[in-house]
Amino acid sequence: MLTRHLFRLSKFSRGxxxxxxxxxxxxxxLHLRTGQSFKGKSxxxxxxxxxxxxxxxxxxxxxxSMTDPSYRGQILVFTTPMIGxxxxxxxxxxYDSQDxxxxxxxxxxxxxxxxxxDVAERFSHYAAVESLASWCKRHNVPGITGVDTRAITTLLxxxxxxLGRVAVGPDSLLPAPDAHEYWDPTxxxxxxxxxxxxxxxxxxTGDIRVAVLDFGAKANILRSxxxxxxxxxxxxxxxxxxxxxxxxxxxxxxxxxxxxxxxxEAAVNLRKTIQEWNKPIFGLCMGHQVxxxxxxxxxxxxxxxxxxxxxxxLALANSGSIxxxxxxxxxxxxxxxLKLQDPFPAGWEPFFINCNDSSVEGIKSTTASxxxxxxxxxxxxxxxxxxxxxxMFSDFVNDCKATRLALNLGPRANVQTPIxxxxxxxxxxxxxxxxxx
Length: 437
Description:
Elements: H1 2-14, E1 18-19, E2 27-32, E3 37-44, E4 49-56, H2 62-66, E5 74-78, E6 82-83, E7 88-89, E8 113-115, E9 118-119, E10 122-123, E11 128-130, H3 132-138, E12 142-145, H4 149-159, E13 162-168, H5 190-194, E14 200-202, E15 208-214, H6 219-226, E16 230-236, E17 250-253, H7 264-276, E18 281-284, H8 286-295, E19 299-315, E20 327-338, E21 348-354, E22 360-365, E23 373-376, H9 391-406
Parallel strand pairs: 4-5, 5-8, 6-9, 8-12, 15-16, 15-17, 17-18, 18-23
Antiparallel strand pairs: 1-10, 2-3, 2-13, 3-12, 4-13, 7-11, 14-16, 19-20, 19-21, 21-22, 22-23
GO molecular function, one term: ATP binding
GO biological process, one term: 'de novo' pyrimidine nucleobase biosynthetic process
Subunit structure: Heterodimer composed of 2 chains; the small (or glutamine) chain promotes the hydrolysis of glutamine to ammonia, which is used by the large (or ammonia) chain to synthesize carbamoyl phosphate.
């Protein structure tokens, strides 16, 4: 009897789901450069475009994935059959010691387009204010629904990440483009498109001062730092940190889109920082690859990359909250990785290895080097995904505090000391997490 009543209650509660705004449903097609085409119907913006077709195995957090700047220029295929069932939240938050201006990972949708098996016609969530279709339309991002995303994913796994064309409306009736007509976004410096253009500060009264090189930072990276008491100054990707490094207690390098080969300027600057500076440095995703290049390792393009919230990595060494021999489940979004070589560059050692494909998931400076530099390919801050490695942010902040005390600098809580920016570079009075799509 109780089970029957609970079933009736659940059916009644579903009646409160909000109808999504009706979308055009124009005929649409996804053409792959390798010759395959998939036909469905459109939602979001009724426009056609080129991009790099990738897939994500994420089961939840489609809003966080779509606003992740690392997806810049990419046609994002979700392997989860239904997308949009909990809508899209209001994307504004305060600038304070707990938040950084947005709820999601940036101010707007960053991916070029989305491909889903079934877009939800109803959405239900207490924080939702609009549907996935209306959100995409508002940000001029096209979507395709009603296609076999499992078949697309199988192709991308077998033949690798592939350039694609989203064709909507009359364009969908035209023949697929010739191979030479496809646009490759990785040929451009996508990091330069999404990085902040001028420095800005968050939580200026924090206990320690951390500099962030913005290669396309997810908001939760900055949020994870300010919530641990750090005063954060975010710099453009190619800013010469060496000019201001003595004013900071640590350096953080963020994630970002595209190929790391466009960031040699940042890698050269970082090499000098590592050689001459003995304070903590932490990088993730693209930041990890830049650290690797500065150390002398080579970055390469993977077949289809790792994108999802379920990537297992094996820790090879102890460091703070990380214990050697443990497997951690991580959130990832990358197409490039560092080559595993033997011997490793002097002063460096592997830190994590991927349990699925044996790719390098982390490197660290050795104890003998006297440095404190760590890079990881995954996202400890998640958003979305597992929180297995979130305490790496605490480890980094604690190391910055310990270094500050070791240098007899004392606490800096509730002290706002202006940063001395060289070259007359102004700071923002109203910071943005990243450049909007």
